[in-house]
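Model it.
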Amino acid sequence: MLFIIALCAVYPYSQWRKVVILVTAFTLGHCITLALAAIGFVNFSASVIEFLIPLSILITALYNAFDKKLENNKFKYGLALAFGLLHGLGFSNYFKSLLMKGQSLLSLLFSFNLGVELGQLIIVAVTFIIASLVMGLFKISQREWSLFISGAVSGISLLLILGNL
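Modeled.
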């Protein structure tokens, strides 16, 4: 959820399509690693992944804070895809526990990722609603909102990173 919130932070509601593409790129990334992990092609230490996931969230939040032209940056789509690959490894142990003998990997993978994508889109919608309300009520700019959210996400990510050391 933190990663999705960090992705949304720099975008105004009028650019919701860009966010949907980012979230879909992220979902595609974790779909790939989920499939590879489910068939046993990739296997990484859970402790390493649990360290790298909050690190990827921190990188995204810091990128938001330091790049003033981020909302127009196509590099972010590749970053979302790459971090999706990493986050998919975090989902892989849970996903493998859902697999039952005789069950179609493809249908479970599709259902799981569809559910994750819908959940992420709900987070996007709620984030945009809250952002619109807060920016309207307190008369703050998109940039100020982005810095606030990115700072909060950075702080939470740092706590998660320190908790995994």
